[in-house]
Design a protein that fits this description.
The protein contains eight helices and six strands, in the order E-E-E-E-H-H-H-H-H-H-H-E-E-H. The protein has 228 residues and is α+β, with helices and mostly antiparallel strands. The chain has three domains: 65 residues; 87 residues, Orthogonal Bundle (DNA polymerase, domain 1), CATH 1.10.150; 32 residues, no CATH class. Strands 1-2-3-4 form a four-stranded antiparallel sheet, covered by helices on one side. A hairpin with a 6-residue loop joins strand 2 and strand 3. The radius of gyration is 28 Å and the shape is elongated. The N and C termini lie far apart (87 Å).
Length: 228
C-alpha cells in the first residue's frame, strides 16, 4: 500500500486571485500561499491558526502587509520610474546595433519587467544583486559573469539618465562579476609559416571570404616584422 505524503493538500480555500489557504497533512495549522507578481513565484507562511475563519483573516492581513512592503519602492509618478528612463535610453540608442533593447524588453526576466515600476531613486546595489540571482533561478545553467556584466552596464546607463535629471543623487555601486580570462591563441612558428603560405596561395587564386576577394594586401597585413 502506497504511503501518503505528509505534504499532500487535504483542504484548500481560494480567497482571491493569488491568495489561498491550505491545510496539509504535515501541520494542524492552515498554510497561507500568496503569489508574488514581481518575483513570479509563490510565498508561503504558516497562519498559526487551526480555525479556517481565523486563518482566512490572517491570510488577508499577511497579503496586505506583503504588498504594502513590496510596493513601497514603486514610483508614485511614471516619470520617476525605471521604465521611463529605460525607454529614454532606447530612444537615444535607436538605430544603434547593440543588445541593450533586447535585454531591457525581454519577457519574464528583462530589466523593464523586473525594475519597470520601481522608483529609480530607490534602486540599490542589493536590488541589482537580487536581480542577478533572479536571472539564475530561471535557468538550468548559471549565466556567465560576462553576461551578467552586460546587464549591470545597461542598468548603469539607465540610472545615469536619472542622475542627469537630478532624480538620483549618486549611482549605486554595481555588483562585480567574476570573468574568466581566455587569452587569444598564438601561432607557433610552424603554424605561422603554414598560414602565410596558404594565404598567399589563396590570394593568387583570387579566393573569396564572405564575398571579399583575398589580395596580396590582405596577406601583408599579417606579416611579422623581423627583429634584429
Amino acid at each position: 500500500m502506497t504511503k501518503k505524503s505528509k505534504n499532500r493538500v487535504i483542504k484548500k480555500k481560494l480567497l482571491r486571485k493569488g491568495l489561498a489557504i491550505l491545510l496539509t497533512g504535515q501541520s494542524p495549522y492552515w498554510l497561507i500561499r500568496l503569489r508574488d507578481p514581481v518575483a513570479q513565484k509563490y510565498v508561503s507562511r504558516s497562519s498559526r491558526e487551526t480555525s479556517r475563519v481565523e486563518a482566512r483573516d490572517a491570510a488577508y492581513e499577511f497579503a496586505d502587509s506583503f504588498h504594502s512592503k513590496a510596493n513601497s519602492d514603486h514610483a508614485v509618478r511614471k516619470a520617476t520610474s525605471f521604465e521611463h528612463y529605460a525607454k529614454q535610453l532606447m530612444v537615444m540608442q535607436k538605430g544603434q546595433s547593440n543588445g541593450d533593447s533586447k535585454l531591457l524588453n525581454r519577457p519574464k526576466d528583462g530589466l523593464i519587467y523586473y525594475f519597470g515600476k520601481h522608483d529609480i531613486s530607490k534602486i540599490t546595489t542589493g536590488m541589482v544583486r537580487d536581480y542577478l540571482f533572479h536571472l539564475d533561478e530561471n535557468r538550468p545553467k548559471l549565466l556567465a559573469g560576462s553576461t551578467k556584466a552586460k546587464h549591470t552596464i545597461i542598468i548603469r546607463k539607465v540610472l545615469t539618465l536619472a542622475v542627469e535629471d537630478g532624480i538620483l543623487n549618486i549611482l549605486p555601486v554595481m555588483p562585480k562579476q567574476k570573468t574568466v580570462d581566455t587569452p587569444r591563441h598564438t601561432f607557433t612558428d610552424r603554424e605561422y609559416k603554414l598560414f602565410m603560405t596558404t594565404a598567399l596561395a589563396c590570394s593568387k587564386r583570387g579566393d573569396k571570404v564572405r564575398g571579399v576577394r583575398i589580395t596580396g594586401h590582405h596577406v601583408r597585413m599579417f606579416e611579422v616584422p623581423l627583429v634584429s
